[in-house]
Protein: Shikimate dehydrogenase (NADP(+))
Organism: Billgrantia montanilacus
Amino acid sequence: MTDRYCVFGNPISHSKSPMIHAAFAEQTGEDIDYTAIEAPLDDFAGAWRRFTAAGGRGANVTVPFKEQAFSLCDTLSERARRAGAVNTLLLGADGRSHGDTTDGVGLVRDLEHHGVSLAGARILVLGAGGAVRGVLEPLLAAGPASLLVANRTAAKAEALAVDFADLGEIRGGGFDVVSGPFDVVINGTSASLGGELPPLPDDLFGTGATAYDMMYGAEPTVFLSWAAKRGACTVDGLGMLVEQAAESFFQWRGKRPLTEPVRESLRRTL
Ligand code: NDP
């Protein structure tokens, strides 16, 4: 029988996840059906319950349900517990719900694919929302020389730095504490959505630095255009999207799909 999976969000019609997982299934020969489901804003748990009652085996979870998904899980991976959010749900054979977050591993794998070395790097992360919380653990695990989290609301970045301090060298503050040079600068704010750029100094990038924007689109974001003019190599978040999906697929099916061909065909649809 075909195993059922889905992505929950609201709204969800824009989601590329069904396309990505269909490509993974075809490539690996896995017999799965993966759909997009718009869950009610006030009853995510009910949507998951109904899905599993109808035979659903697992799901991805996107905005705005990652925290609600976290709350309903019977068991959590350590990285999901740290992130306080779940983007991957798995129904165990015992009927219990297990939660994981694969966004951070997706970001780190994408950076690796682009030849970016994080070990010993001076890393700046912009933003302190859900996406940034989800990527700090694997970034710190990669062994950077330093990691600064800078956010419009400084207190949120300071709080994140306290929460993750046991994992490595991490500081938090407002944009005013940002002083380069950095080797890797990751924009995890949603400023790019509105075509805005956080206030950043001109000497942000060291020689050979990489600028990464978690957002992606047909055109480079304002942040990536700004970074390219200052000599940085630029990467958008499309690869992160595909890599986090590949890690979810692995959690469900035990197979690792090749991500590069999927990323390339997805880029042609932007
Ligand atoms: P949140 O709403 O949780 O957080 C938004 C963050 O952006 C906050 O830190 C906020 O600062 C900051 N921000 C918003 N507007 C501005 C602005 N004009 N100037 C400076 N800072 C601003 O969002 P998420 O963390 O969930 O998502 C952030 C981004 O990451 C989105 O663009 C999202 O699309 C992308 N993303 C990409 C993924 C991928 O797979 N490629 C996966 C997940 C997310 P403050 O705290 O001061 O409000």
About this structure: The pocket of NDP is lined by residues 103, 127-132, 151-153, 156, 188-194, 196, 198, 214-215, 237, 240-241, 244 (CB under 6 Å). The two ends are 33 Å apart (CA to CA). The first strand starts at residue 3 and ends at 9.
